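Can anyone check this?
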Amino acid sequence: MGRQNIILVEDDRHISKLVKYNFEKAGFNCLITESGESALEALRHKSFDLIILDIMLPGMDGFETCRNIKQDKKISYIPIIIVTAKGEEVDKVVGFELGADDYVVKPFSPRELILRVKAVLKRGKHDEEEGEDILSIDNIVVDIPRHKVTVDKKEITLTNIEFKLLVTLIRRKGLVQSRDILLEDVWDIAADITTRTIDTHIKRLREKLGKRGKCIETVRGIGYRCSEGD
């Protein structure tokens, strides 16, 4: 397997030099861009396995850059780790709601960041390898290798997190999944942020699934379950 390509979007050159050095030493290729605009340009012309995205950027900030990435079907599948000096709860929730896969607060050690990157990349590979390639329930069809979801034969666009959430629920259909379990299994984090993150993603996922969204049932006081519709 060749070296995986990481793009680092960071305008602080001291940080970007340190991160690039450590990632290349760890066996990754690492491209640095200093703005959201230049990152989007690079992403459309070269293949990357993961994006490390600072929030405080000149011009287009990290949140807006993340939103643009997730709205572009050609690059929306690429996992994103947000890195920022902001550590407030609301910033974490906004990042996850926009489709980020993980969140690292400055100051951080390069070793910690490398471990988080490896965990996100491993999770994506695990999602592709585990079980069947094609999942279906109630006229919803999920093609995992192609990262494609159709509802009543019409393709819909999901963020990376929404896709993982739907795959997890369908694979465990009929079984109740608590919010804490979903946080750990879908986001790969301990349940140390508000579980409203789960509720927000479920709401958006149901909206995108339209009338088929009713297959995701709320189990009051516990969490959610995916079941065949009527």
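Reply from J.R.: I decoded it. The first strand starts at residue 5 and ends at 9.
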